[in-house]
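Possible race condition, two jobs.
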Amino acid sequence: MTEKLNLKAKDHLGSSEGKKHFNEKHFTESAPRYDIATRGLSLGQDSYWKRCLIRELPPVETPFCVDIACGTGDVTFLLADKYDDGEMLGVDLTQEMINISDSRNSNPRIRFSCQDMSHLDLPDHSVDIMTGSYAIRNAPDLDEALDEFHRVMKPGGQLAFLDFSKPSSKLLQLSQFWTLKIWGSFWGLVLHGNPEVHGYISASIRDYPAKKELEEKFSEHGFKVIKSQNFFSGMTTIHFLKALPNI
């Protein structure tokens, strides 16, 4: 039985250590019902978005693929279906998510490991494909995480990140905040009796860069934005990136 979340997002998401601590506790509690939550929060569109992410990835022979913040492993398994001659690694901050992923896995080309996305146990320039779903928004320090991604990616390697997308307009940001606050809190109450479990999403996006700023940050950390794909009128976005060589 998982430990009940007794933290308030607003008290912890303002610092990298606080955010990491909150995420460890939050995803530990949410793991057993995480798949139900993502379907509910997305109005049933979550699996479609993830299939779109996989479909747009390029063909690569015998790739090494890393799925960060892999959760229960759904995207990791989709990667293995697409790249049937590759090796897949799913990493997540919480052991509870890894336990669920492991219990579902019968493919010897797939392995799961409990790791912090900002400190990956991987050699430099070893990864061909990297994916993340609702991942980079939860990085304790986004700049540190992007530096780590660039370290492990092969030059020319491709990345795809699905996440909530923050609009530039302050009015739209306010509307998005309260929409996510109410909707996330509802699912937190339904699934866990605690609105903080998914209500935290609105707080997590408060300090997250708006789409244009996020794309500039990708560029600053050595990635070329190939394209983006919006859903729900831009509420969520998939960014497709290419890792550039060090200069």
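Job #2 (started ~2 s after job #1):
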Amino acid sequence: MSESQRKICVVVNSRANYGRIKTVMRAVKEHPKLQLQLLVGASALLHRFGSVIDVIRADGFEPTAVVHSMVEGETPTTMAKSTGLGILELASQFENIKPDVVLTVADRFETIATAIAGAYMNIPVAHTQGGEVTGSIDESVRHAVTKLSHIHFPSSQRAYEFLLRMGEDPKTVHLTGCPAMDVVAQSDLALPPDLFQRYAGVGADIDPKKPYLVVLQHPVTTEYGQGFRQIGETLEAISRIGMQTAWLWPNIDAGSDDVSKGLRVFREKHNPDYLHFYRNFTPEDYVRLLDSCACLVGNSSSGLREGSFMGVPTVNIGTRQGGRERGENVIDVDYKADDIETAIRAQLKHGKYKRSNLFGDGTAGKQIAEILATAQFRIQKRLSYVS
């Protein structure tokens, strides 16, 4: 490493987190004026959430360190405690590796731990996907991280404008688009014939030559205790459709156990011959999976983000993405089997949509790396409209 290289510490905490920062990591690693430091923690270390750390290593990134901070239970209490542990562990790692900049992603509870530790240690914090609007605790976390961050990389024009209205200095806000679009733009989207066999999981075989659904439905933290009922409505709708379905396991947010229980109970009771459950896919295989599916169902932001970029028909359920920008590819419904079924059938009839650059054009990673290499940071923050 040259003494002139700026050390950029990227913190990866989950499968979605990795998919939305991978191209930035690659661009930082390849930039002559930057050195990549990588901390991997939280659910990215856990087998039941797909052992994301193994995917990271297979992609050629060796973690500088791992950060164990998750308290088991998937309740609001364990989320709060995990956030606290994350601050403790990340502060120790930052002290050890002494980054020049810490880069954190989006709006998860692990993200705010990164921002708090970095900001209190006078380390410039860079933040992607700020300024967006959604439901659940993510909405509060995202805006709190914005106020703790020193440079911002929003994904859309509206998010850019919202950051300015939040009082962020225009000189620190850079409209780059979302790095998740880079994965789509840089991937061969042809569906490998053995894709569904690569990832094991449990359930019926899926024939890639026939139409299939993808379902990804996470718990909603502000609706804790309702996950079992909510996932039951989705399962009922999918059973009425009867199309072969690749179902991804929910994330680690509070309420995950309720959603997982609903999936297990349904499988044990009905032994469906059209469902296969998966823990994880690599970022590239995930976008291939989406691009070839007949419809994406659930409440993941990928239906609104990557889905809009690829024109994937999407049925968005419930409040988790409430207020987020979306393309014409999305139909919004409540937690009602009848409504979900009707929306899926409408999307199956419609087919692919026109692609949208709402969240960027697929060049965010290189833009962010170049800005990180040249930006001047000011640790002391102030509302931009205060002289």
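The chain has a mean pLDDT of 96.
Logs attached separately.
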